[in-house]
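--- STAGE predict ---
source: upstream dedup step, 1 unique chain passed
mode: sequence only
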Amino acid sequence: MSTIPSSVDRLIIHQIDLARPSPGGIDTCLRGLARYCPADMSLAFVGVDTGEGPATRRLGVWETFSYEGRVVWFLPVAKIDPGDQRRWIPHSLKLAAGVARYVRRLPSSPMVQAHRMDLALLALMARRRRLVYMIHTQQGGLTGKTSDSFWRFAKRLHENLEKVVVKRAEDVLIFNEEYSSTVREWNRAARFSPTWWDPALIDADGNREDESICWVGRLETPKDPALALAVVQELHEQYPTGNWSLKMLGSGTLFDVLKSKLAELPDDIRSRIHLFGRVEPAQVAHTMSRCQVFLMTSHPGYEGYPRVLVEALASGLPAVVTEGSDTGRIVKNGVNGFVTNRNPATIAAALVKAVHLAPTDARRTVEHLAAPAVVRNVMAPEVVG
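--- STAGE serialize ---
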């Protein structure tokens, strides 16, 4: 059993297990904060047990993890796998119950940080802590018709509660520039930040396979993974002399649906599509370094500032993205990729052109988004007027 200090600089509450990476940009964001936050800042995470922790793990018992030699504290308070969206009770509700159960074991801290509205609302109940609230989606991103969140059934309530949270937070960071202008009307301290790529992880110098496509994300409705399968079919029909392949990395409730769709395809197409399921960040980075182009098929209205797109470009992958996916507007047609409609034939034609774009041009467009510089600004609200 580890003994946590009586006080830390920042307490972070989220459905994360530091022992096991989970799909999604928030998980990657939090690990980046742990790795690149100021050296003199102490962090403690309150999260979940996915079943992959140390053999001695017990709920309510503090653990330690090391990032670049920096010790980070972690308290699992509920048994949850954030990567499994087959649930009847919201993950955030289970986590909130766990926090309440072990609240006396939390250290004091001047600031508490949350990345979801419901958990931020919980954090506000700890009156002696100032709130840092980080928003990762577009306006209404969790309540739109293609969302997989329970909040899609209570759109107006979510909007009203988020406004309450924002108004009472000391620092509000939004990973979506358009929504940040709205949030700033509620709280002048609100600020925008792009996401980042991790130079300790990303590799842009791999041996690339010709006409290989990389798709990364949760296999859920907002990401529309089935569209990627339709695109490969289109490539096979329209460009029969090509050798197009698709590597899909990620898990979710649609995994079995995609397997069934895959089984219905002709053998020569099916053999070119590989569903890898849930993989570690290092394997994502390795796959990106071996592919030739990145494909993103998200529905509009959901993405905040898609981290996976930033990572793909940093890996030297020109990107083909559907309209509404690239909310940061970092894809420039004919330079580092193409933005298309959702028609599989249009996407296929864009992929054919994208493989001829230079990997160096893709990487150059996101050089300024390397983690050390971006995280330094994220964790230092005092630099923003």
